[in-house]
Model the fold of this input.
Amino acid sequence: MKFFRFVLETSRGMLLLTALVAGLSGACNAGLIAMVNTALNRDGAPAALLLWGFGGLVLGKVLSSFFSQYFLIRFGQEIIANLRQDLVHRVLNVPLRQLERIGAARIMATLTDDVMSITQAFLGIPLIAVNLAMLLGGAVYLGWLSWRMLLVMAVFGFLGAVVYRLFVNRAMHYLNLAREVEDKLYHGFRGLTEGIKELKLHRSRRGAFLTESIRTPAQAYRNFNVIAEVRFLIAQNWTHFLFFILIGFLLFLLPRLEPLSPRALTGYIITTLYLMGPLAGVLSYFSLYGRGNIALQKVE
Done:
């Protein structure tokens, strides 16, 4: 949560604006789902009012998504530029003994990779806001169709969230390990640039340097990142698996437990399939958020 506290402290007004626009996008998506279901179950050609309504909702969805991302890109780049300037200002005001204890490699890693990770996590906020709004709008529509169906989805969602959290916690652990190794890797890069003449003159020292300062930390950094991303991937696919189990329940078990009209069943299936995209968008953000949160801890 450190990353979101940082965002709230630095750009509360921008977040509020993004949330409002994302809410409009979610409302448009819920309206589109309802309108598609109505058109599919309508006898004869769609009425002119339905066509105009569909066009208006599509326009509202596209414009709200565009402006939510546009506002955050503008504010996001300004915040990142200010963060870099503030970091440089603090480095210049830190006593030399403390700077030597921290090390130039850690400072360079913070000014480059950490700030970039924070930027990527920051720019992902409008996408997750729009996707969350779409999920909320879809849940409202499902609740309007049947509160029992919404309860079933809540049970599936709770089960998915518990298992997903277990995988994400392990992924965050390996992201932390990767970030620690990255400091060693930057230390090796600094040694390369400052000692290039000596390394060229001594072959044995050059070989030891490549092994200890470059190859070993680079391989560890790669391995930790791969393990972390695999954990995120397993968690995401676990959620997709639950979604398909839910669709199977709707198609084959729910009609036996409760009499349903074809229109209601079609609405359930269409809405569930439609929400898989926004859910995948939300879940994919956790990797960016994890890296941004760890980077912010390093910056502090």
Summary: The chain is about 95% helix and 0% strand. The chain has a mean pLDDT of 79.
